[in-house]
């Protein structure tokens, strides 16, 4: 398999699963194993790994609480903490969508993860909701949709390992789920992380490999060895058409989410670096009838991880403020895989009783 040098600079991110224990307990455990807690993650650890020096440092992430950073070559996928669901191996950028959606932690709020498998963002949502709530009666809970049967099986396994108890997993197509179905009348928050080209992924596909959701092709490609490059190596002529198909589907998902009568917040994310799947999809969504009639707008930067410096591409959006509302991550530059996150919010809250 061809290596991508950018992957060597990505720390091993560990999300502490707070449905099982606290971050303080996790930190103490790692210290008792000989790891040293440092300040902000230091470049020297990445450099040390590259040169195979034995430095066992770790740090707390500055943007996502409950996320720890270890040197890039730290192996934890066989660790008992991982097998017991106490830690989740999840790239930092992939923690942004659930964090930005900011699911409620009190009664009378229902959340949908529309495209859930393998379930890292779902279990993150569950942790942010303090693992509270129940689907029956529906007052406060998390619905996790996954249309693919095999992936649905993986989702159930991952959620069970993460000890999530407030989730109703649904093996169904989100697009054919009626927003007028009584079960979803009080849905306020929707996470959309639909299928995409995966062009931002440069490493850390190990959780996909483990869950059987992805297998590395036997053939290699010209570095950077992103999934897209691997796929292009097989089907170069299909790439443009494939991106357009993905973008059309992604837009339909956003439009469908906006039809839910009580929805207040919709996060749309991808692990793609292509504007076609990111800024262009968001721009088109803002121009649709659903957005205008439902009065959805992009949340301002102040609501969307404001301290993260890399924002959307201004030349691809209608206004500079729209671009500022968007979060982008570039592999090789941001110590994460490539990623994109947007947050749509309803202009005015749905009045009580209209649910
Ligand atoms: N959010 C997941 C996570 O962090 O682990 C990754 C989601 S993956 C990018 C997209 C998933 O959405 C795939 O498992 C795919 O089968 C599923 N999917 C795509 N379209 C769907 C639809 N219309 N309804 C439900 N699931 C869908």
UniProtKB/TrEMBL annotation:
The keyword Transferase applies. One of its GO terms (biological process) is rRNA base methylation. Transmembrane segments: none annotated. Keywords: Methyltransferase, RNA-binding, S-adenosyl-L-methionine, Transferase. GO terms for molecular function: RNA binding; RNA methyltransferase activity. The active site is at residue 271. This is SAM-dependent MTase RsmB/NOP-type domain-containing protein. The lineage of its organism: Eukaryota, Fungi, Dikarya, Basidiomycota, Agaricomycotina. The chain holds residues 124 to 478 of 517 of the full protein.
């Amino acid at each position: 398999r061809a290596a991508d040098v950018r992957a060597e600079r990505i720390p091993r991110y560990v999300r502490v699963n707070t449905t099982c224990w606290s971050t303080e307990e996790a930190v103490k455990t790692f210290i008792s194993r000989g790891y040293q807690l440092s300040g902000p993650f230091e470049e020297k650890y990445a450099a040390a790994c590259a040169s195979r020096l034995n430095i066992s440092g770790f740090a707390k992430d500055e943007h996502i609480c409950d996320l720890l950073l270890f040197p890039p070559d730290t192996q934890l996928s066989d660790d008992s903490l991982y097998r017991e669901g106490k830690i989740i191996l999840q790239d930092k950028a992939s923690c942004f969508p659930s964090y930005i959606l900011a699911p409620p932690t009190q009664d009378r709020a229902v959340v949908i993860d529309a495209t859930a498998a393998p379930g890292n963002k779902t279990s993150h949502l569950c942790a942010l909701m303090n693992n509270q709530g129940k689907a029956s009666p529906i007052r406060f809970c998390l619905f996790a949709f996954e249309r693919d049967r095999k992936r649905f099986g993986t989702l159930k396994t991952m959620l069970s390992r993460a000890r999530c108890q407030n989730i109703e997993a649904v093996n169904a197509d989100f697009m054919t789920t009626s927003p007028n179905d009584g079960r979803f009348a009080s849905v306020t928050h929707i996470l959309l992380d639909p299928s995409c080209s995966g062009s931002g992924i440069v490493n850390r596909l190990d959780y996909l490999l483990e869950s059987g959701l992805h297998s590395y092709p036997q053939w290699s490609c010209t570095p950077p060895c992103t999934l897209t490059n691997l796929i292009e190596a097989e089907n170069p002529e299909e790439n443009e058409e494939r991106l357009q198909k993905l973008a059309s589907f992604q837009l339909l998902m956003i439009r469908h989410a906006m039809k839910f009568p009580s929805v207040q917040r919709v996060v749309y994310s991808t692990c793609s670096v292509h504007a076609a799947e990111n800024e262009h999809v968001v721009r088109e969504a803002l121009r649709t009838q659903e957005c205008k009639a439902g009065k959805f707008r992009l949340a301002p930067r102040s609501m969307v991880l404001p301290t993260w410096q890399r924002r959307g591409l201004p030349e691809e959006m209608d206004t500079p403020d729209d671009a500022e509302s968007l979060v982008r991550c570039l592999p090789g530059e941001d110590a994460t895989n490539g990623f994109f996150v947007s947050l749509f919010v309803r202009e005015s809250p749905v009045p009580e009783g209209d649910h």
